[in-house]
Amino acid sequence: MIYDVIVVGSGFSAIAVTCNLIEQLPVSAKVAVVGDDPGFGRGTAYRTELYLHRLNVPAGRMSLLPHHPDDFVDWLKSRGRQLQAGDFASRSDYGLYVRDTLARLLRKRDGRCRVDFIKAKAAGCVERYASTLAFHLGNGDEIAGKNVVLCLGVGNANLPVDPAGVPPFLRSRIIENPWRLSWLRRVAPSDAVCILGSGLTMIDQVLALRAHGHRGRIDVLSRRGLAPLGHAKMPPAPLPIDVERLPRTISVLLKTLRGKSREVADWRSVMDGLRPVTQALWQRLSSEERARFLRHALPWWNIHRHRVAPDVFAAFEKLVSDGTVRFHAGFLKSLEAGQDRLVAGYRVRAKREIAEIGADWLVNCTGMERAGLSHSPLLKEMSRFQLIVPDPLGLGIQVDAASEVMAPSRSSSARLFAVGALTAGQFWEITAVPDIRVQAKTVVEEIVRARPVSDA
């Protein structure tokens, strides 16, 4: 069957695109949404049921559709959640809101386009009929589309070392995907836990452990030993920043931003001032300067830019101050068994010294892999047939300013777009809801404007 639009994916980006398609396409249009995730639209982050797992963005900036800015706050109030626009809602509530928004749009039987949800994995892609892209599905079917939107996210980062040598009885205590929260029930209150990675996922898992009764020691190992900072209880006003006046080299740019931070009462006002111009700032940088940022500045950018809710930060800081959570800076070199527990050997940062951490559990919180192609057989095949081109810095695939995929060898007149993390090479800040929702709306507007669907 030939569709006007095919959406490939089943996470937040896919649901944002689908909602905009329902709102903007005529009744005659046909849309297919292809994905095999049973929690369609909620994704890993919004499927958690633990209330301590909060959004890292205030509720007032989390509406699914940017042209309805109060939608999420209104939904919260309708469910009896007494939260204001500046409060941080739970991730589970946000997942329910996303699901309800899609369901509300789908209930409008009259006056909306046809939407087919196909529960299957897209296994391959070829150009077909000179005007469509066709996808081979895992269930044996094939569908084709005049417009395609890739909404494939990124996979979990692998452990830095191969755990194959660890005996089976300890191998089960290595948690490679911490979002499968059933592992928490197996942790004894006094067990020692070692967490790899010190980002937002680490904080989520530390608080989840405490909520499940764990009271033992938690060692956190990361390359630099840095942890995310918190939002202010009373957020300062963003500092207006003229991106055209900022330097184009990372070293001078960082020096300039540090200077601005010393001139204001709260450094957060500088970071929040950068938020609306981050994409423009990124696009001004040369490939060399972007690579330099990724090598040297990214960890410090992450802890200042991607902050946690004030009360979550306070709870975590208390665990650090009383010694429950201890940080170690270094590179994991080995993972072995020793006296009925795991032993993580690491090279101490800036030294040749090798140190060890003994633990009953090791949890991989190194986060999501950089937005490459390795996690997706479909993307690897599309790259092999030159239907897509990898970003030279490993940040997804090459797209233009309109999020349209750049692949000079493609001959079909079908249009191929990408939304979300796959477009990080062009936009950088494109993993959070406030950015993705705008991108999704813009892509759909371009599809409707430039390639009207038939009335047949």
TrEMBL record:
Name of the protein: FAD-dependent pyridine nucleotide-disulfide oxidoreductase
PANTHER family with a match to the protein in the record: BLR0577 PROTEIN
Pfam families: NAD_binding_9
Organism: Rhizobium chutanense
Record Gene3D superfamilies: FAD/NAD(P)-binding domain
Domain FAD-dependent urate hydroxylase HpyO/Asp monooxygenase CreE-like FAD/NAD(P)-binding: 7-154
Superkingdom of the organism of origin: Bacteria
